[in-house]
Design a protein that fits this description.
Elements lengths: L5 E7 L5 H10 L3 E4 L6 H10 L4 E5 L11 H10 L3 E8 L2 H11 L16 H21 L2 E4 L5 H12 L7 E8 L10 E4 L20 H8 L2 H23 L4 E8 L5 H13 L4 E6 L6
Parallel strand pairs: 1-3, 1-4, 2-3, 4-5, 6-8, 6-9, 7-8
């Protein structure tokens, strides 16, 4: 292989948005295939290289459960041949997945028992989701995880496109602000809790603003605790990012959480993105501000 092909492999939980992510890649110019059997992965890549394809995206899911254990070895084989492999794993909380199946009236591919008379369908779906997590755990371990629990379709599409616009050979650092009251993001590699810092929410003139607004930033800069927290997070990342990059990590997601995900966490994500963007490929996400 000549090393010019980029392969994006999309896996993840049923109902987590794999089809939406695949459509985003199709819009971005990738040749896309949904539900390719793992047994065909190597021969498919060989064929696409003969056709001079440069960017290919493949979605696989639990319907291929019996052959999914082959995938990590296949990906290692492709990387040894020079293919730029970018695995993405879409995830969501169990409650979110159950709600999505209920809203769409779809049946989980592993919940065959749910159709039987007298079976608690909610329980059957939950059990199927937990079984699916177990079956996909090896793929999740080797992929960049995207938590779609609170993402709308357009937000997921934008995020996938932004991830894949970054250079493949470099570590990409993703900073994400969030609200603890809406749950910890499943895709975070590191979580920093900043709820103990002074809260602009209690200042009437700042309550409706965000950490991206200068009055909020100026308020937070005045507090020594905020600067100490920033320095501690930055020192941790300064120490460990290089070893992570040497360990061939493609993405590292750092979650910064406060109570509402509007002021303190947003301010710190903005500041960290600015500093680390001078040395690393860096992206930022404000989970609770999306769509504002």
């Amino acid at each position: 292989m000549n090393g010019s092909l980029e392969l994006v492999l999309i896996t993840g939980m049923s109902g987590s948005g794999k089809s939406i992510a695949l459509r985003a890649l199709e819009d971005a110019g990738y040749f896309c295939v949904d539900n390719l059997p793992p047994e065909l992965l190597l021969s498919f890549v060989d064929l696409e290289q003969k056709h001079a394809q440069r960017r290919v995206a493949i979605a696989m899911d639990v319907r291929s459960a019996t052959s999914l254990p082959q995938v990590p070895a296949h990906l290692q084989d492709l990387m040894r041949r020079g293919v730029a492999v970018r695995p993405l794993f879409l995830d969501a909380t169990t409650d979110t997945l159950v709600r999505r199946f209920s809203e769409t009236r779809r049946r989980h591919p592993l919940s065959k028992a749910a159709a039987e008379v007298g079976v608690d369908q909610h329980r059957a779906v939950v059990e199927a989701i937990e079984l699916e997590r177990e079956l996909l755990s090896a793929l999740r371990e080797h992929a960049h995880v995207i938590d779609t629990s609170v993402l709308r379709a357009a937000q997921l599409q934008d995020y996938v496109k932004s991830l894949l616009s970054t250079p493949h050979a470099q570590l990409t650092l993703v900073f994400e602000s969030f609200a603890f009251k809406r749950g910890i993001p499943l895709d975070a590699d590191y979580i920093f809790d900043v709820r103990m810092l002074p809260n602009p929410h209690y200042e009437p003139e700042l309550r409706d603003l965000t950490g991206m607004d200068e009055p909020v930033a100026e308020y937070l800069r005045r507090h020594e605790q905020v600067e100490e927290m920033y320095a501690d997070i930055a020192a941790f990342l300064d120490h460990w990012l290089e070893p992570l990059a040497l360990n061939h990590r493609s993405y590292v997601t750092v979650g910064i959480g406060c109570t509402g995900g509007q002021h303190r966490s947003v301010y710190l994500v903005e500041k960290l993105t600015e500093e680390f963007g001078e040395r690393w490929t860096t992206l930022k996400r404000h989970r609770e501000l999306a769509g504002r």
